[in-house]
Write a structure and sequence with these properties.
The chain is of the alpha+beta class and 124 residues long. It is built from 2 helices and 8 strands. 16% of the residues lie in helices and 40% in strands. The longest helix has 10 residues.
Amino acid sequence: MMKLDCFSMSLAVKDLEASRNFYQKLGFSVFAGEMSQHYLMMKNGDTNIGLFQGMFEGNILTFNPGWDQNSQQLENFTDIRKLLTKLEQQGIDVNNKNVEGEQGPASFSFTDPDGNVILIDQHR
């Protein structure tokens, strides 16, 4: 089994303020990010969404190894480098690799058969 940890949907939005207001009506609250940096992370229970204005095209499924659903660091987790190796061994075409060294922050992405982008983004 492959453990990917924290999951969120990263939404490419046209108007960050309008999107924030909309998702607040659905019970989401801002827990990270800043309007001035053009992104907000919002939470409703264990559901996380990221609102990103002008940063990328299309929506992205995002997993953060080493974080729980509250973005708190996990004591034990599978490092992104091991996940990358396992996915490549399974024949998944990985792109946008930003993986250096033997530990620490790194990221990579790939696309599922339907064109959905999946981002693996480790922050520690």
